[in-house]
Design a protein that fits this description.
This protein has 365 residues and is an alpha/beta fold. It contains eleven helices and eleven strands. A hairpin with a 2-residue loop joins strand 10 and strand 11. Helix 2 crosses helix 8, helix 3 runs parallel beside helix 4 and helix 7 runs parallel beside helix 9. The longest helix has 14 residues.
Length: 365
């Protein structure tokens, strides 16, 4: 570990997914400022990290009062921008939470930026949203790369596509090469190559060598009956079926069946039941979690993934989750927090590449 510290600002911090990811790298990090508006998420954050630098609503904090830092992190919400006529970049972001990212970057100009958002950011509002974001970063002085990464690539048992943006201040621009991960990102990059855009090729260098986990690897042993679907109609349905369990694990979603609506009256997505030999669909910020078929003492049963397992599916470690449980966070909030978080193993891989290839300690100190 380098003796020189990388000072970090964390925006829209949630429960600290970015921080959990960085903690697993060799970086010597000091989180000098974090911001999270949700009181339950603040409580969960404080269960694992120091809360002395944790602040509330970022829209009410003067950017000049943000400490100097080297790396800014943030999983900002995806919002449409009001664009009238020619895109003006920074001015177009007013009224959105990205504006708060932009005004802090404009005032403090940290050397490195890592942002995360939903997969759809790339084509949101006919790609106008991300174009304004990228132009704004360019205008402030940042050279930018972006792509879509599936968390499964980092070994977690979940199919979760998210957009990531990495930016470096005052870094030499390059023409984009073919994006290895995202066809939609590649289309936009080809368009940007024909403009006066400052981009560089970062994410193509990113490779994960993590062990692959599957749903069965993260299951708790002692489960409350509350997580099981125990109606008479479901029991009769299961008794009438013949299930063939996959013989081996596969790093993809393995759906067993959809419960008939007359057996389980819910939306189609909530009637899907999956094999534990595969990975989970995307974890959502809600209590109606992934349903799996499991073996019990009385035979086959269907149950929901627990909040603890939701965190494991995201790649959070046991100690992290236990600390949140000790903080007396409700099950509903735990579902919400795990679904809203970034996957720490993805962050670990990105930051390790940033450290290896781009952080020059002599330059930033």
């Amino acid at each position: 570990m380098n003796s020189k510290q990388i000072k970090v600002v964390s925006l829209f911090s949630g429960i600290g997914g970015f921080e959990a990811g960085i903690k697993k790298t060799s970086l010597n990090v000091d989180v000098v400022f974090a911001s999270e508006i949700d009181s339950f998420a603040q409580k969960a954050y404080a269960a694992n990290f120091t809360s002395s630098n944790l602040h509330g609503d970022i829209t009410k904090i003067d950017e000049k009062k943000i400490p100097e830092h080297h790396l800014l992190l943030g999983g900002f919400p995806c919002q449409s921008f009001s664009i009238a006529g020619k895109r003006k970049g920074f001015e177009d972001t007013r009224g959105t939470l990205f504006f708060d990212v932009a005004r802090i970057l404009s005032a403090k100009k940290p050397k490195f930026v890592l942002l995360e958002n939903v997969k759809n950011l790339i084509n949101h509002d006919n790609s106008n949203t991300i174009k304004v974001i990228l132009k704004t970063l360019n205008d402030i002085g940042y050279t930018v790369d972006f792509t879509v990464i599936n968390s499964q690539e980092a070994g977690v048992p979940q199919n979760r596509d998210r957009t990531y943006i990495c930016a470096i201040y005052n870094y030499p621009a390059q023409k984009y090469v073919i994006d290895k991960r995202s066809a939609k990102a590649n289309i936009l990059k080809k368009e940007l190559n024909y403009s006066e855009f400052n981009g560089f090729n970062f994410f193509n260098k990113l490779k994960f060598n993590n062990k692959q986990y599957y749903i069965e690897d993260i299951l708790e042993q002692e489960i409350s009956d509350n997580f099981f679907l125990k109606s008479q109609s479901i029991q009769e349905f299961l008794a009438s079926q013949c299930f063939v369990e996959p013989l081996q694990n596969e790093a993809k979603i393995l759906k067993f069946f959809d419960l008939p609506k007359n057996v389980y009256n819910d939306l189609e997505r909530q009637r899907r039941v999956y094999s534990i030999k595969g990975i989970s669909p995307t974890v959502l910020a809600r209590s109606d979690s992934t349903k799996i078929l499991v073996n019990t003492k009385t035979g086959k049963s269907i149950r929901k993934i627990t909040p603890t397992e939701n965190f494991y599916i995201q790649g959070f470690e046991k100690d992290f989750v236990e600390n949140i449980k000790k903080a007396d966070i409700s099950l509903t909030q735990m579902y919400k927090q795990s679904g809203n978080a970034v996957s720490p193993p993805v962050i670990t891989g990105i930051i390790e590449l940033l450290d290896k290839e781009f952080i020059n300690y002599d330059e930033i100190y």
